[in-house]
Amino acid sequence: MQKGFVRYTKGKLVYYTIPAFTKTGLVRHGFSTRLGGVSTGETAELNLGFYRKDTRENVYENFGILCNALGIERDRLVLSKQEHHDGIRVITAADCGKGIVRESDITDTDAFICNTPGVPAVVFCADCVPVFLLDVKKKAFGLVHSGWRSTVLEIAKKTVLKMQAEFGTEPKDVLAAIGPSIGQCHFEVDADVAGQFDAPYQKQVGEKYHIDLWSVIVDQLKSAGVQDEAITLAELCTFCHSDEFFSNRAHKGKIGLMGAMMELI
Ligand SMILES: [Zn+2]
Question: Of 5, 112, 143, 206, which one's alpha carbon is 20 to 30 angstroms from that of 164?
Answer without folding.
Answer: 5
